[in-house]
Amino acid sequence: MKTIIEPFRIKSVEPIRVTTKEERGTLIQNAGYNLFNLHSDDVMIDLLTDSGTSAMSAAQWSGIMQGDESYAGSPSFYRFERAVKDLMPFKHVIPTHQGRAAEKILFTIAAGSGTKVPSNTHFDTTRANVEMAGAEPVDLVIAEGKQPESEHPFKGNMDLEALDTLLTAERERIPIVMLTITNNTGGGQPVSMENMRGVREICSRHKVPLFFDACRFAENAYLIKTREPGYAETSVPEIVREIFSLADGMTMSAKKDAFVNIGGWLALNDDDWAEQARNMLILTEGFPTYGGLAGRDLEAIAIGLQEIVDEDYLRYRMASMQYLGNALTQMGVPIVKPVGGHAVYIDARSLLPHIPPLSYPGQSLAVALYEEGGIRACEIGTVMFGKQADGSEKAAPLDLVRLAVPRRVYTQSHVDYVIECVENLVARKDELPGYRIEWQPRFLRHFTARFTQER
Ligand SMILES: *Cc1c(COP(=O)(O)O)cnc(C)c1O
User: Are residues 315 and 303 in the same domain?
Assistant: First the structure.
């Protein structure tokens, strides 16, 4: 069959409020042309993020009712721990309220002032937590990982030579190596098993622990199955176990590949680090058998982890990303290639050459998508990265607009609607205006800045 269906039925629905173009024009103007300032019930298709926005299954909702809220020793914790260890056989599993809490604990223990932490590309919360610990984050993704048009199947791979050179020169300054699977900041691009093995070998040779930032491990495993020679016949759970057999530990945001709205964990083998981590957990999150979560959340994660490695689900997930990416490519819209696991990234700078980077082509496209169809996407470009430490402005390397797709939430007709909106915009793309920033905060300006149109 050519048609790959959503492998689920809908039992419970959330109405979408249908708005008019006129209404949306007023709403976005009042929001200072910043999509983060919109009320989400004024959005029709919300592609701002895939984080914490998954639809839970009937089984997960029944798990919520089974949650045991005992302060210590809850059976929900043991079910959660078993589900994690079934896929990621680490000795210690420490629940946190989300991924960044696991990162905060890990880097407080592992990284200190003057150290360096290499990764393929650090995600922004990971980078910030490395820096908070006084350490320096170092990104060592392969060159193809920075070229939007490159069709390399594993653009999240680490540059092994660069890692080896860094470790040879500065081993004593490097307490830990990270690998982000999939590489979120690089466009949701996967890391190959061969590359993970290479990183493992280098880490073992230099005796440095290797941790995975594993938020989208199942999407990465499925992309290994479909793109890497030798894995077509291996089941996804087996690929997942092979991945984690290469690491000494992991951080996880369950808001991604565990199908829940909140949660995360830190898992590791080292007893000494685990003891330190639990001590910190008690200070900042909670007792070790619930961490930052309620018993019901732990139940939902345990069930979500079984559902996420289902190959019918993953085939549908990747097919729906491909479907969106192919349709945009066919109408001549430049996107980051190949399409990664959780989002399609439009190259707004190439699409809108009449808008210079310092007039924010990504913001222009994102605002126009909202006005046209009530779609909320996310600018990842000069608005997000252009402000320099000295207050000046510089063009980011790329001006992208990310269409991140929540898991199990939207149907194919929602995606068709998104495609039609982009088509309408492309027809009048030369009319889209640039933007100026009217007000901005000191840090992380993309969340709260207010814009005006350059007309
Ligand atoms: C989301 C994310 C995190 C942080 O997780 P939160 O649950 O949002 O704190 C870390 N790394 C990557 C790759 C992510 O995508």
Answer: no
Q: Which atom of ligand 1 is nearest to the CA of 101?
A: 9
Ligand 1 centroid vs 18 CA: distance in angstroms?
A: 31
Look at ligand 1, atom 6, and give the residue with the nearest C-alpha. Answer: 99
Query: pLDDT at position 320, please?
Result: 95
- The CATH number that applies at residue 201 is 3.40.640.10
Residue 442 predicted with pLDDT over 90: no
Domain assignment present for residue 14? The answer is no
User: 289-318, pLDDT tens digit by residue?
Assistant: 999 999 999 999 999 999 999 999 999 999
- Rounded-to-integer distance, Cα 186 and Cα 144, Å: 10
User: Using CA atoms, how far apart are residues 298 and 260, in angstroms rounded to an integer?
Assistant: 10
Cα–Cα dist 244/99, whole Å: 17
For 100, the domain range is: 58-308
Query: In angstroms, what is the span from residue 276 Cα to ligand 1's centroid?
Result: 22
Could you tell me which residues are beta bridge partners of residue 376? 46
Q: Provide the token pair at 54.
A: 């998954």
Together in a domain, 140 and 281: yes
**Proportion of the chain above pLDDT 90, given as a percent:** 93
Q: What is the pTM of this model?
A: 0.95
Q: Which residue has the least CA distance to atom 1 on ligand 1? A: 253
* Cβ atoms 186, 141 nearer than 8 A: yes
How far away, in angstroms, is 178 Cα from ligand 1 center? 13
Number of domains in the chain: 2
Same domain, 395 and 265: no
Task: For the sheet with 210-213, list strands across it.
Answer: 92-96, 264-268, 249-253, 210-213, 177-180
Q: Is the CB of 121 under 6 A from ligand 1?
A: no
Sign of CA dihedral 158, 198, 273, 282: positive
